[in-house]
Amino acid sequence: MHTYNWQKSTYSPDGSNCVYIAATPDGTIHLRESDEPDITLTTTPDRLHALIRTLKTTPR
């Protein structure tokens, strides 16, 4: 397993249910959740940006 420089999202509260993100030198983005740290999602910066943009514009 690779060692990544994980950073906690500034929108995650203290304690559990935190989202972490790490980027590799090739630009790949890795995401994980604090309750399941062995499970990661892998994406590209463009796709992550599109997801965040969609989430911000979707009515709740």
UniProtKB/TrEMBL annotation:
A family per Pfam: DUF397
Protein origin, superkingdom: Bacteria
Domain DUF397: 5-56
Protein name from the UniProt record: DUF397 domain-containing protein
